C-alpha cells in the first residue's frame, strides 16, 4: 500500500512512521508513506497557500490552485483508489472504514488547515471525507496519522501475531474482555480462576461473556 499525505506541516507527522510497528511495516515494504508540502505547489514567490474567504468571515481558506496542482501531479503518476480529505465534517472513522481502506493500493490523505479548503478542491478531487471524532483539531495532520495507523496495522504481515488484528475490540462489534498476566495475585487482586484452569473452551466462553457484559455496559449501541 502507498499513502501520499498532503499538508502544510508534514514534519508534524514524521515520528509515528519512524517508530515501532509502523516503522517496521515501512522497512518490510508493506506500506510506503510519502509526504508532500503544499507550499511546494504555491503559485507565487511568497509561497502563499491560503487566502481570505469570499463573502467575508473569520479565518483563512486553503487556495484551490496549489492543492489542485499537487493532487493532479500525483494522479498523473498512478491511479488512486481514494482521495481522502480529513475534516470534522466527514464520516466518523470506524473499524469498518479502516478495513475497507486496508485492501486499497494507493491512497491520498489531504490535511486541512485554517478554516478549510476551497470547495472546488472537494468538487474536483476528493472522493471521501473522514473525521476522527466530533471535536476540532488544529489541522488534519494528527487525524491523518490516526487513519494511517488504523489502516496500516491491518495489512497482512504488519502485526506479528496475525490473529491479533482479528481479535481486536470492534472487529466483531464487541469490546475486549479483561486480560491479565503475571503475577497471579497483586495487592489482593487475583486473576479469575477460569484463566488458570487450562480449559480453553471454557476460557473462550468466559471471554465472550465478559466481552458482551462490558459492551452492554459501555457501548450498548454496538449491540443494536
Ligand atoms: N481536522 C480538524 N479536526 C478534525 C477531525 N476531528 N477529524 C479529521 N480532521 C480534522
TrEMBL record:
Record-linked Pfam families: tRNA_m1G_MT (PF01746)
Keywords: Cytoplasm, Methyltransferase, S-adenosyl-L-methionine, Transferase, tRNA processing
Protein name: tRNA (guanine-N(1)-)-methyltransferase
A GO BP annotation: methylation
Residues annotated as domain tRNA methyltransferase TRMD/TRM10-type: 1-224
Enzyme Commission number(s) from the entry: 2.1.1.228
Physiological role: Specifically methylates guanosine-37 in various tRNAs.
Lineage: Bacteria, Pseudomonadati, Bacteroidota, Flavobacteriia, Flavobacteriales
Molecular functions (GO terms): methyltransferase activity
Family: Belongs to the RNA methyltransferase TrmD family.
Subcellular location: Cytoplasm
